[in-house]
Amino acid sequence: MKLLISGATGFVGKHLVKNLREAGHEISIITRPTSKEKSPDGVKNFVFDGQIESLIKFLKANEFEGVIHLASLFLAQHTSGDIQVLINSNVLFSTLLLEAAVKSNVPWFINTGTFWQHYQNAEFSPVNLYAATKQAFEDIAKYYFETSEINFVTLKLSDTFGPNDTRPKIFNLWLKISKTQEALEMSPGEQIIDISYIDNVIDGYMRLVELLSQDKKKQLKGRSFAIKSAERTTLKELSIIFEEVTGRKLNINWGARPYRPREVMLPWEKGETIPGWKPKISLREGIKRTFNDA
């Protein structure tokens, strides 16, 4: 299939593009003019100039069979100066992309959401402004899929990890202090963590692509799915697993820092699993594959 991917230069996006190409799909990506990432050989890169007309023209010319939308701006906590860029990235750009997909008669569209849209397991309660912008786009998308033929679904993610992850995430932070043995001040560590190895996440996207390509009656239209870890632990327990698998010692001062405002103590539990998908790589195996050679 001919597929268009946004957010292809990010951690999840790079892994997804690689797997889709290996499965025989023809991939194009969409990037911003400020992007410094080089697209892989054989991948067409459309540099979006912010003009909806050029985006529609590109989609119509390529006759894509699906769009996978990964691009977003994540900020755990925002400042007043971040509001415009958050809305531009997560609401405006997303809406422009969906508008272009509808105008170009793209059959299906996978949106990427977040568990943080569901603070304390609510139907909707955003942990932060980032999560609120993700929900805002989902609400806008409802208009599009109710008034057009596009088969729109959302796949919601919690935290992710795996090889070649350069993001300042908890495992990379622990790897750093394991090498320096500097002390790290953390919260009491009783929050439950839902974290998925990247191969399991990519399997979820690949399964959705398969299901959407077969969904002639559009039974998936408007539905939301979740990638959930089969092994949830407290943050403190996760640090012990990390030590056991990697053989590295962590110098953590638990309780030295308070929990953040609206700390997620229990991840969203009500998300529907993708039909025919389940995680194949265990938490321990994922940590081993990621860090044993680090």
Protein architecture, described:
With 294 residues, the protein is an alpha/beta fold. It has 2 domains: 2-161 and 195-226, Rossmann fold; 170-193 and 230-267 and 281-291, UDP-galactose 4-epimerase, domain 1, CATH 3.90.25.10. The chain is 38% helix and 18% strand. The chain is built from 8 helices and 13 strands. The chain has helices spanning 11-22, 52-62, 83-103, 129-147, 170-180, 198-214, 235-246, 283-291, and strands at 2-6, 26-31, 44-47, 66-69, 108-114, 151-157, 159-161, 184-186, 192-193, 195-197, 224-226, 233-234, 252-254. A 7-stranded parallel sheet has the order 3-2-1-4-5-6-11, sandwiched between helices. It has a two-stranded parallel ribbon with strand order 7-10. The chain has a two-stranded parallel ribbon with strand order 8-13. Helix 2 (52-62) packs parallel to helix 3. The longest helix has 21 residues, at 83-103. It is globular.
